[in-house]
Amino acid sequence: MADSALPAIPGEYPPLHGSKLFFLTVAIATASFMEILDMTIVNVSVPSISGSLGVTTSEGTWAVSSYMLAAAVMQPLSGWIARRFGEVRTFVTSILLFMVFSAICGLANSLPMLVGARLIQGLVSGPMMSVAQAILLRNYPLEKRGLALGLWSMVIMIAPIFGPIIGGWITDNLSWPWLFYINLPVGAFSAVASFSILRHRESTTVKLPIDGVGLILLVIGVGSLQFMLDNGNEKDWFNSPVILAAAITSIIAITFFVPWELTDKHPVVDLRLFARRNFRVGTLTVGMAFFAFSGINIIFPLWLQTTVGYTATWAGFAVAPVGLLGLIVAPIVGRNMMRLNLRLAASFAFCVFGFSVFWTATLNETASFIQFATPRFLQGLGVAFFFLPLNQILMSGVGPNELASASGVSNFVRTMAGSFATAITVWIWNRRSDYHHAVLTEHINNASSPWAHYLAKLGTHGIHGVGASEYVNQVISSQASTLGVNDVFNMLGLLYIVLIPFVWFAKPPFGARAAPASH
Q1: CA 152 – CA 144 distance, rounded (Å)
Q2: What is the Cα–Cα distance from 295 to 290, expressed in whole angstroms?
Q3: Distance, CA of 363 to CA of 356 (rounded, Å)
């Protein structure tokens, strides 16, 4: 067959057409959808997973942060792995290993087993997205690569919409292990279809040295930092020798990591890219914005389920509207990218984000579903004006031979920001809830006539003595939780507003050197 013949240039093949191109697109889109879905599908199911495994909700969020941490560590290595073993082999192997550890996640009967499986699942998924995009572009005709990127963007926009809905429905109607079992048929289709079409179209492999020292320092430094953030609240922070040791280990590893990466010939994270203003401004802005975005996406469904009384399904429906408006507007933004003032577009996005988050912070547990969903729907407008312009800014001035490294570093920063957000925002929420609980409890005074009147009112409903105390404590806890989550939303909304002037440190022109961010 023509497309199977040996190419004139090693690793370069004529583009696919017709049914083969269609099925390859479906297979790669399916794998990408599965990988992105696994970052959001667990969010609304954390309370159910925590209850099933007998752990706190804060501990349950480790199933989210461990996955994101591992995926982040692997992303800078995606280019090296693909060049060393071949893009097709890397992609298919990544899918197969992803399926294996998805099954182990579903079989987990303890939190350590689940977190360990999620950690390895994140490691093997790391190269999947970057390599998938490279395969897609390499096999599309040049004149249709814009279409390929458009389809890619649609997948990225749709997956976060369906993640909370699918996760909620599975949790309520089946059981949380099925969050992971559904990856098996999806992954099998993608792996078989991709391999059958691409088995004779492998990219050129090159034996390149790997920065082993940098990789070890990265894993130790970032892993210790994430462990400290995830466990600090339960272990009383620096009063715990374990947390103190993790903090010291992280500081030492990162302190050695930075100069090592700046001087190594083949760094695992090319920190020299940060010497360029637009890359530095764009990457750090994206990282901070994604920190706030991820924090909202983990805290909001947790609060709806633990305080408002929503099921996982309805929490998913309340979270999902963030992608709907973005799905409509993103293609328009993409087509008009060269006409937009990118700094103004990003500033507009942060204004929309800030306004919608401040709006959410005014709501309490008595709000209706529409009141919860409407600001989330509006936030989708910000998503469309956020990802594409800022990616264009950070990639401007990056040479063609540096695009892979730049994409890996920016994805690493963004994913790490999301991983840290999970731990930090849950910790802040817990601390603020405890604070508000203490303040509200101070208002209970047996000598107070309003308190006596409230007790009398409870008595008319048959609530007396210990029962009345338990009921009042439950009410106070609910109110404290709501006030705490409102504090978190206000903090994250303020962060979006503070980011606006930072965007303007980027310097035009912002040439179209890179495709939209893939992950």
Answers
A1: 13
A2: 8
A3: 11
Find out whether the peptide bond into 509 is cis, omega within 30 degrees of 0: yes
d(CA 405, CA 266): 11
Report in angstroms the alpha-carbon separations of 265 from 116, 181, 348: 33, 42, 40
Give, for 346, the enclosing helix (H) or strand (E). helix 342-360
Regions of the chain where pLDDT drops below 50: 1-9, 512-519
Residues 313-350, buried b or exposed e (16+ Cβ, 10 A)? bbbbbbbbbbbbbbbebbeebbeebeebebbebbbbbb
Return the sign of the alpha-carbon dihedral for residues 350, 63, 436, 237: negative
Q: How far apart are CA 477 and CA 183, in angstroms?
A: 38
Closest by alpha carbon to 342, among 508, 515, 465?
508
Closest CA to 21 of 160, 205, 145, 157: 145
The DSSP secondary structure of 106-167, one letter per residue, reads HH--SHHHHHHHHHHHHHHHHHHHHHHHHHHHHHS-GGGHHHHHHHHHHHHHHHHHHHHHHH
Report the candidate in 35, 37, 47 with the shortest Cα–Cα distance to residue 300: 47
What's the pLDDT score for residue 73? 78
Q: With residue 23 as reference, give the H or E element that holds it.
A: helix 18-40
The answer to whether residues 354 and 501 touch, using CB atoms and an 8 Å cutoff, is: no
Report which of 346, 492, 309, 334 is spatially closest to residue 418, judged by C-alpha positions: 492
Of the candidates 302, 502, 516, which has an alpha carbon nearest to the alpha carbon of residue 407?
Answer: 516
Distance CA 179, CA 171 (A): 8
DSSP for 203-259, written as a single string: PPP------HHHHHHHHHHHHHHHHHHHHTTTTTGGGSHHHHHHHHHHHHHHHHHHH
List % helix, strand, coil for the chain (3-state, nearest 5).
80, 0, 20
Taking Cα atoms as reference points, which of 193, 48, 188, 198 lies closest to residue 114? Answer: 48
> What is the rounded distance in angstroms from the CA atom of residue 470 to the CA atom of residue 21?
63
3-state secondary structure of 268: coil
The CATH class for the domain spanning 1-208 reads mainly alpha
Distance (Å, whole) CA 84 – CA 460: 75
Task: Name the residue among 516, 411, 408 with its Cα closest to residue 83.
Answer: 408
Class of domain 272-519 (CATH, top level): mainly alpha
User: DSSP class of residue 516?
Assistant: P
- C-beta separation of 517 from 374 below 8 A: no
pLDDT at residue 103, rounded to an integer: 93
Q: Closest by alpha carbon to 433, among 296, 289, 227, 233? A: 233
